[in-house]
Design a protein that fits this description.
Blueprint: E1 3-10, H1 23-32, E2 37-40, H2 47-53, E3 63-66, E4 68-71, E5 77-81, H3 88-93, H4 101-110, E6 114-117, H5 133-136, H6 139-142, E7 149-153, H7 158-170, E8 175-178, E9 190-195, H8 201-209, E10 216-218, H9 225-229, H10 233-250, H11 252-280
Parallel strand pairs: 1-2, 2-3, 7-8
Antiparallel strand pairs: 1-9, 4-5, 5-6, 9-10
Length: about 280
């Protein structure tokens, strides 16, 4: 089986306010570096994916998958991939930060998707295993319901990536790898080896659910904001903590609306599937 490199953690300027790279530039640079695809994982946004989807002049022989890096209320950032036919209300919900991890897992799996923590051993408040101690103690309960871990992130220390892979091995979970790039210099510095037959989100979801464990790797990017700021970066971390909590509270009404719509959409889909089954009997 032929394998190709995918960058499974990519931020674009159309979807992430802290990114300086347009999605088409990102894809072109990855292809130039020998990659066969990418997963767009903008912060609580599908803006980058929509920009690429609507571009009539797409990069040839290159796979662009739709994902998102979602900010949970208490457990940091999670990479989420939904199937193409998931309810549109679910995609809209994920553009509103602040779901609890419990609800995120329940809803993503209910829609047939997969999820796993981004940079699980990374920055405080942003990462699954670096949240407040009262939450970290529950990780062994939650980890049973996760589909993968990010085992290589080019913007994280080698030790943190190594520990993430050890934890994935302990719990028999696959890992993915990516650059977490927000600028051109970092693009393609982390990768996941996936079969060349993966062309859609459903293909990737099936690959993960079937128990496959892709290889990951890359090189450390040493010019991140935290590398440049040193200990002063802590102020940004706590600033993000407050920003995330404020955003979560501001989105309560929208999240409730879309969660209700998701239930209705899934019921409609179930009835439609049942009618289709009965007609084929």
């Amino acid at each position: 089986m032929e394998y190709v490199k995918f960058d499974m953690h990519c931020h674009t300027s159309e979807g992430s306010v802290d990114s300086a790279v347009k999605v088409k530039e990102f894809a072109a640079e990855l292809k130039k570096k020998g990659f066969g695809g990418m997963l767009i994982t903008d912060h609580d946004s599908y803006g980058g994916y929509r920009a690429y989807r609507d571009d009539p002049d797409k990069i040839k022989d290159f796979v662009v998958l739709r994902g998102i890096e979602y900010d949970t209320f208490e457990y940091g950032h999670f990479l989420v991939v939904l199937p193409e036919d998931a309810p549109e209300s679910m995609f809209k919900l994920l553009e509103h930060r602040g779901l609890s991890l419990f609800n995120l897992i329940r809803l993503v799996h209910g829609c047939g998707g997969v999820l796993g923590p981004a940079h699980p051993c990374g920055e405080k408040f942003l990462s699954f295993l670096s949240t407040r101690k009262s939450f970290v103690t529950l990780y062994k309960w939650y980890i049973k319901f996760l589909d993968f871990l990010e085992g290589y992130n080019a913007c994280e220390d080698e030790q943190d990536n190594y520990i993430a892979r050890l934890i994935a091995h302990e719990h028999d979970l696959p890992v993915v790898g990516g650059s977490d790039a927000h600028n051109m210099d970092c693009i393609g510095m982390g990768y996941t080896l996936l079969p060349s037959c993966i062309k859609t989100e459903k293909d990737f979801i099936a690959f993960i659910k079937n128990g496959n464990k892709p290889k990951v790797g890359g090189h450390r990017y040493c010019m991140t904001t935290k590398d440049k700021l040193g200990t002063a970066n802590l102020s940004l971390v706590y600033g993000f903590f407050m920003y995330n909590k404020w955003g979560a509270f501001c989105n309560i009404t929208s999240r409730r609306k879309y969660k209700k719509q998701i239930r209705l959409d899934l019921m409609k889909k179930l009835r439609k599937d049942e009618n289709t089954f009965e007609k084929t009997e």
